[in-house]
Amino acid sequence: MTPVRGLEVRAGEQGFTLIELIVSLALFGLIAVAGLALVENVLGVQAQTDGRLERLGDLQRAMFVVTSDLEQVSEGGIAGSAGGVAFRRHAQANGGYGAPVSYTLAAGALTRTLMPVVPGEAIRSQRLLGGVSAVRWRYRDGAAGWRDSWPPAEPDRQTDWPDAIDVTLTLTPGKGRPAGTVRRIVALPVPIVKPKPAGVPGSVPA
Predict the structure, then answer these.
(1) pLDDT for 136-174, tens place per residue?
(2) What is the mean pLDDT of residues 47-57?
(3) Domains of the chain: total
(4) Residue 129, class by beta-carbon neighbours within 10 Å (0-12 exposed, 13-18 middle, 19+ buried)?
(5) In this structure, is residue 97 part of a structural domain?
(6) Could you tell me if residue 1 is inside a domain?
(7) Rounded Cα–Cα distance for residues 89 and 23 (Å)
(8) Per the UniProt record, which residue ranges are transmembrane (predicted)?
(9) Do 114 and 126 contact (CB within 8 A), yes or no?
(10) What CA–CA distance (Å, rounded) separates 85 from 101?
(11) Average pLDDT over residues 60-66
């Protein structure tokens, strides 16, 4: 029988057998599954890292606001307990008159509340940081150490300021949000003592 021209098979040019194709497909499938698992792992790590960075940014912004308020405390008393603190913050927009500010824990968030200075203004509440399960404020009273409330009980110290205020936040875990505690100690400025009017005991002569 004469072979048909163009259909003759030369040595070494045979195609793959069925078994070879099955083995090749199996190997390709294993490589694809391993590659997919690697990609999913990389994406998971990236998402977790992004969540941690976002959480870190939220913490830094919240602590910046708290520190800024305390460093600009204005004249007047400071009232605080372990759960919250209230004071007046220097406000240039109000002619330097102190604006009442308070910090509390509300609905799992550190909340900053600005009380109105001008009649007719609305109370403004700002959710500074979510995912907070507990907050503790403490007040440094010189050599007496840390107190859980302020002012001291002595009647003549009701308008005194603590040397520093310590705030500790307990964070709740969540997606990309690890649990833990964050602590910040802020040294308060030295109170400005205004001279008493002439004729009052302890006043400084002009």
Answers:
(1) 999 999 889 999 999 999 999 988 999 999 999 999 987
(2) 75
(3) 1
(4) buried
(5) yes
(6) no
(7) 75
(8) 21-39
(9) yes
(10) 8
(11) 94
Report CA torsion sign: 99, 124, 149, 145.
Answer: negative
The neighbouring-strand residues paired with 132 are 171
Asked if residue 14 is part of any domain, the answer here is no
Sign of CA dihedral 123, 128, 131, 133: negative
| Sheet hosting strand 132-140, strand order edge to edge | 146-147, 132-140, 164-171, 180-187
Copy the structure tokens of residue 57.
């940014």
Closest CA to 161 of 139, 136, 128: 139
Q: How far apart are CA 99 and CA 118, in angstroms?
A: 10
Residue 86 lies in a domain: yes
Question: What is the domain range of residue 135?
Answer: 43-187
Q: How many CB atoms lie within 10 A of CB 104?
A: 16
Of 63, 104, 79, 69, nearest in space to 161 by CA: 79
The beta strands (E) that lie in the chain are given as 79-80, 85-89, 99-106, 109-114, 124-130, 132-140, 146-147, 164-171, 180-187
Measured distance CA(184)–CA(63) in Å, rounded = 7
